[in-house]
Write a structure and sequence with these properties.
The complex is a heterodimer of chains A (120) and B (955). Chain A is an alpha+beta fold. In chain A, 21% of the residues lie in helices and 38% in strands. Chain A is built from four helices and nine strands. In chain A, the strands form two sheets. In chain A, strands 1-2-3-9-8-5 form a six-stranded antiparallel beta sheet. In chain A, a hairpin with a 4-residue loop joins β1 and β2. The two termini of chain A are 22 Å apart. The longest helix of chain B is centred in the middle third of the chain and has 39 residues. In chain B, the strands form seven sheets. In chain B, strands 2-8-7-6-5-3-4 form a seven-stranded mixed beta sheet, with helices on both faces. Chain B is an alpha/beta fold and 955 residues long. In chain B, α23 links the parallel β19 and β20. Chain B is built from 32 helices and 26 strands. Helix content of chain B is 38%, strand content 12%. The chains are: A alpha+beta (120), B alpha/beta (955).
Chain lengths: 120, 955
């Protein structure tokens, strides 16, 4: 199940674990990323709290945590090569995996159609 | 023989009228032509239509007739003569140094270096970027750390920045910061100033006995200490690391040529002043401070960082790296509010390093040490006890009740020594100290010796002798013949585009004339060789100048008092907000901490507000660029209970005189707040309107914008603040003058050695000339807007259709119609021989143009011709006559490399290299093609590349 936030994050939900990244639209808006900072594995994050930071040459943005949960895995590949986020934001450019505190929380997020309407 | 009256008549031309013939660009005839284009009959009619009547000042500016250049120089000479340039061995962070004449004449006194702007446009800044990269490399090597910036404002503010960096990076959750009591007094004062609003406790003590690492998030040590002690901090630093705290060392770079580096002690951060690398003391500044950090802290470091990247041909090119740390992008989340730094002085220090190389620096350091040992031996022979046992350049002598007597005797011998406490005397020897000075000091202590009476030995601490290499890069090992040095300096400056070659139409930066007559006095020894902490009677000339300049600035701004302490605009903002904070605190209003700032503000505004512990509340801006009055009123009411201040810029950052400014001030006052009016755009107000009359309580003035101090390629600057009388008691104090708290700069008057520039500007312009300059600045901006009309839209205008002293040109439609970005336009202007206007600020995708009053009609026309030709090139793309990706705009700037290579482009070499505006013979050639910013930030290199890289680039 794929969900989206108004802050331009996407979540792919599998067995109570969400893989989180930024949307293609967000990646385009930011331009070529030069730096990504990810949370530590094991960090307990809360909804709308800072989860990660991304930087292009001219902009710096925070990536917010879409739901409450614990970070179980981070994608070191995008730290080593931030261009992956630009080339494949909703695939290889994922940021971190979050074990959700409450799986049902995800229901309130947008589906793909709603997100497309938002950015249209 | 008599002459008929029709054959001869006296001309009314005034060859020495500085204001109208030299400073103001357009001649009266040109002004008439320009007014015609703008559509006004007279300059005053244009001004009346531009500047709202409600804010006009009533009385004209006046302080007597304007002086000619010669008269002003005579007056400056008289004033300088009232300073007494004695030999100062006071030390405390300021030391005698010899500026190599080749550096003085070819950099400090050379407009190719001092009139350049901050190197945000890297292609036209390769020369000073290389010089700054040399600076960073030298500092990294000397400190033994990985990454160094270029540069910070002074040693004390660098120490305060180090504290903030420690707090950001520490894993420790402690809220206290430890300061070595052996830090210079002004450093301690500044750390206390900066810590208080952020809620951090400052613990001052002897690190060997008073530091408990568990209690602090970080610590700073002085090396060597202010009284000469040279101590090893390795053990303390490792204990700090065990508790998750961060360690900083304030180090004298000359001492580091002989002593173990902070990096080798395990320090995370080193800061210090590069003053004694050839930059005169100048009564306190300007000088470049440095900061170097371990690699892990580079993204949290404040200040500008030069990095190495490649251009579109893959050739090596320099640029400013990691700008996302800085206030113009991160605003209140920035690592610091620092903007203008000390580029010119960092360039001087780096060239001093190139000039002497590591061998020369080491020799100078050893000579300084030898003089200190000789001094100590003489005093010991007289029976005095010298402290410490081992030292580099500074010794302290216990003299008991003889202190005053000896200090006075030394002054009578022409030497200033340092008063330490009530019973001790300190002295720091330096590169300039001569044998006669040693003998004079001995006489003051009652000894009649010759230097030859003593054997020089050494007294450095053996365990701390430096064993590691430094400055091994070839740039520090070139042939040091002056012919080579002169040519190296010349080659670098030839790569850059500064005001000595072309107008720099940067909005909000006011790149006006820096007249030679204004610049001459700054290198006179009576201004440049005065130590900041000399007795007041040795700096009477400075006092006279500072008092008179303050008085004139009061008259110009409508304020009641000025503080000259802030040494940059951002520092002025900080000082002004701190003054407001202290005013509220004094009234018992400890809760007032909200600062209203419009979205259109300079990035320094929110960054400064954050540093004084204020909460930034953002106010909306209307579509026409004005502050949204309804939103402002609503926010002021919402936060009324806690409102501390609002920060506004006038005329607005969109270059418009807003009619509502008085109302904004009234609303703020009604809710208990104070108004901070950012003086960055003062060039549109001088003589026409006064912040103090409009309702503002405090402003900083950028003397490096409105008052002619050159930008120096990114500093120095001066940001004095003016206040209304109710705030005057809360202005910054200083331990060396009034002993009050709240110091914001290391020296009491910031960077006073560049004040002769602003003062002589005021003297030579007179009140009338200054007012005329403002009017012509407005005319020039409106003329550009009129000439570009039809080709570009001007984004913001007053209701009367006028812009103030700058205008924003909308280039976004070109992006849609032709795929031409604002970058493409900016880089194409380089081919035309221009520095681009301010890019993408305050509105993304636009250009903000400020011509200033100093540009002639011919130069402005050359610029407009270039802009119009660029519009036509975009039109060719729109019409399909030119390829969308392979065209002169996308490929700009064009270099000689392009010409000598295979030419397979769908436009001619002629079009590429000689667009309208470009000079045929005196063509400016960009030394590199377009710089790849992304590559530079992804592959960060901030020191000189190794020799192999040079070889590769040459291939």
């Amino acid at each position: 199940m794929l969900k989206f936030t108004a802050e331009h994050e996407w979540l792919k939900l599998e067995d109570g674990v969400a893989t989180v990244g930024i949307t293609s639209h967000a990646a385009d808006q930011l331009g070529d990323l030069v730096f990504v900072e990810l949370p530590e594995v094991g960090a307990e994050l809360t909804k709308d709290g800072n989860a990660a930071t991304v930087e292009s040459v001219k902009a710096a943005s925070d990536v917010y945590c879409p739901l409450d949960g614990e970070v179980t895995e981070v994608n070191q590949a995008i730290v080593d090569d931030p261009s992956i986020v630009n080339s494949d934001p909703q695939g290889k450019g994922w940021f971190f995996k979050l074990k959700l505190k409450n799986t049902a929380d995800a229901d309130a997020l947008m589906d793909e159609a709603a997100y497309q309407d938002l950015i249209a | 023989m008599t002459t008929d009256s029709t054959d001869f008549h006296f001309t009314d031309y005034q060859p020495y009228d500085f204001a109208n013939r030299r400073h103001i660009g357009p001649s009266p005839t040109e002004m008439a032509e320009m007014l015609n284009v703008v559509g006004y009959k007279s300059l005053d009619a244009l001004i009346d239509a531009t500047v709202p009547a409600s804010i006009r000042q009533t009385a004209p500016l006046s302080w007597g007739p304007a002086l000619t250049e010669r008269e002003a120089l005579d007056k400056l000479r008289d004033t300088a003569n009232r300073n007494k340039a004695l030999v100062s061995l006071i030390g405390q962070g300021y030391y005698g140094t010899i500026t190599p004449p080749v550096i003085q004449r070819n950099i400090l006194e050379n407009p190719a270096w001092y009139t350049a702007y901050t190197p945000y446009q890297p292609e036209i800044s390769q020369g000073r970027l290389e010089a700054l990269l040399n600076f960073q490399t030298m500092i990294c090597d000397l400190t033994g750390l990985d990454v160094a910036n270029a540069s910070l404002l002074d040693e004390a503010t660098a120490a305060a920045e180090a504290m903030a960096l420690c707090q950001r990076q520490a894993k420790s959750k402690a809220t206290a910061f430890f300061v070595d009591a052996a830090c210079h007094p002004q450093t301690i004062a500044l750390i206390e100033t900066r810590a208080a609003p952020l809620g951090w406790t400052v613990v001052i003590g002897d690190p060997m006995t008073d530091l408990d690492p568990v209690d602090v998030f970080g610590a700073i040590f002085q090396y060597p200490g202010t009284n000469g002690h040279v101590r090893d901090f390795s053990g303390l630093i490792s204990r700090l690391h065990q508790t998750g705290a961060v360690a900083a060392v304030a180090a004298d770079p000359l001492a580091l040529t002989l002593l173990k580096s902070p990096g080798e002690m395990g320090a995370d951060i080193a800061i210090g002043s590069s003053q004694r690398f050839g930059v005169p003391v100048g009564y306190g500044g300007p000088h470049a401070a440095y900061m170097a950090v371990k690699d892990a802290h580079k993204r949290a470091m404040p200040g500008r960082l030069v990095g190495v990247s490649v251009d579109s041909r893959g050739n090596r090119a320099y640029r400013l790296s990691l700008q996302t740390r800085e206030q113009h992008i991160r605003r209140e989340k920035a690592t610091s509010n620092i903007c203008t730094a000390q580029v010119l002085l960092a360039v001087m220090a780096s060239m001093y390093g190139v000039f002497h190389g590591p061998d020369g620096l080491k020799a100078i350091a050893q000579q300084v040490h030898r003089k200190a040992v000789l001094m100590a031996k003489g005093l010991e022979k007289l029976g005095y006890v010298i402290e410490p046992d081992t030292f580099f350049d500074t010794i302290t002598v216990e003299v008991g009740h003889m202190q005053g007597l000896i200090l006075r005797a030394a002054v009578a011998e022409g030497v200033n020594l340092r008063k330490v406490g009530e019973t001790r005397i300190g002295m720091s020897l330096d590169e300039r100290t001569r044998p006669v000075t040693l003998e004079a000091v001995w006489r003051a202590f009652g000894g009649n010796f010759k230097v030859s009476d003593f054997e020089p030995t050494w007294r450095l601490p053996t365990a701390l002798l430096r064993k590691s290499d430094y400055m091994t890069h070839p740039i520090f090992h070139m042939n040091r013949a002056e012919s080579e040095m002169t040519r190296y300096i010349r080659r670098l400056s030839d790569r850059d585009l500064a005001l000595d070659r072309a107008m720099i139409p940067l909005g909000s930066c006011t790149m006006k004339l820096n007249a030679t007559a204004e610049m001459l006095p700054i290198t006179w020894p009576e201004f440049s060789d005065i130590h900041p902490f000399v007795p007041a009677d040795q700096a009477l000339g400075y006092k006279e100048m500072i008092d008179d300049l303050s008085q004139k600035l009061c008259q110009i701004t409508g304020y009641d008092a000025f503080s000259m302490q802030p040494n940059s605009g951002a520092q002025g903002e900080y000082a002004g907000l701190l003054t407001i904070r202290n005013y509220h605190l004094a009234k018992g209003d400890t809760h007032r901490d909200v600062c209203l700032i419009p979205t259109s503000a300079h990035g320094t505004n929110p960054a400064s507000a954050q540093m004084v512990g204020m909460k930034v509340v953002v106010v909306k801006v209307r579509d026409n660029g004005d502050i949204d009055l309804d939103d402002f009123r609503a926010k002021a009411e919402q936060y009324a209970a806690n409102l501390s201040a609002c920060m506004i810029t006038y005329p607005s950052t969109h270059g418009v005189f807003e009619e509502t400014v008085r109302e904004i001030c009234e609303i703020t006052h009604k809710h208990g707040g104070q108004v901070y009016l950012d003086g960055a755009n003062m060039n549109a107000m001088v003589g026409l309107s006064r912040p103090g009359d409009i309702g503002s309580d405090v402003s900083h003035l950028n003397l490096h914008k409105t008052f002619c101090i050159p930008h120096g390629g990114g500093g120095p600057g001066m940001g004095p603040i003016g206040v209304k009388s109710h705030l005057a008691p809360h202005l910054p104090g200083h331990p060396a003058t009034d002993g009050r708290e709240g110091a914001v700069s290391a020296a009491p008057f910031g960077s006073p050695s560049i004040l002769p520039i602003s003062w002589s500007y005021c003297l030579m312009m007179g009140g009338e000339g200054l007012t005329q300059a403002t009017k012509v600045a407005i005319l020039n901006a409106n003329y550009i807007a009129a000439r570009l009309k039809g080709s570009y839209d001007v984004l913001y205008k007053s209701e009367a259709g006028r812009v103030a002293h700058e205008c924003i040109i909308d280039t976004r439609p070109l992006n849609v119609s032709a795929g031409v970005s604002v970058d493409d336009v900016a880089k194409r202007l380089i081919d035309c021989g221009f520095h681009a206007p301010t890019m993408s600020w305050p509105v993304a995708g636009t250009l903000m143009i400020e011509p200033t009053e100093s540009e002639t009609k011919a130069e402005i026309d050359r610029f407009c011709d270039a802009m119009l030709a660029i519009r036509e090139e975009a039109r060719a793309i729109e019409d399909g006559r030119m390829d969308r990706s392979n065209n002169p705009l996308k490929n700009a700037p064009h270099t000689v490399e392009d010409l000598v290579g295979e030419w397979d482009r769908p436009y001619s070499r002629e079009q590429a290299c000689y667009p309208p505006g470009a000079f045929r013979v005196d063509k400016y050639w960009s030394p590199v093609n377009r710089v790849d910013n992304v590559y530079g930030d992804r592959n960060l290199v901030c020191t000189c590349p190794p020799l192999e890289a040079y070889a590769e680039a040459a291939e």
